[in-house]
Structure formats: C-alpha cells, structure tokens
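Late entry, written up from scratch paper. The run itself happened at the end of the previous shift, but nothing got recorded in the book at the time, so transcribing now.
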Amino acid sequence: MTFVEGYAFTKVKTSHGTDIYVSRYGKLVKIVPCSPHVKFSERYTTDLIRQIESME
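Output as recorded:
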C-alpha cells in the first residue's frame, strides 16, 4: 500500500513473526512488529506515519 507522502507499507512474514516494513521513497524507515491478523486501514497507517514523522 502506497501513500501520497511517499510512504509504502509491506507486511512481511519473518522467522520471528510478522512485521510491517515502512519505506519512504524506496528507503526503509521503520520495521514494526505486528500480529498476522492486522489489516491495513487508513487510520492505522496514518498513525504510523505521524509516529515516524514525530521522531524526525
């Protein structure tokens, strides 16, 4: 899922569980552990974007 601000969200199954890889303009900016049952929603992704931008 890609957003106007250049953020892309990808759910990835890893050896220790499921993670969400967040990238911006092709550069990985955050890895977020999550439940395999998490669904991408506008609210969920907007909250992650706000959290990332507040750390910059």
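The chain has one helix and three strands.
(Scratch paper discarded after transcription.)
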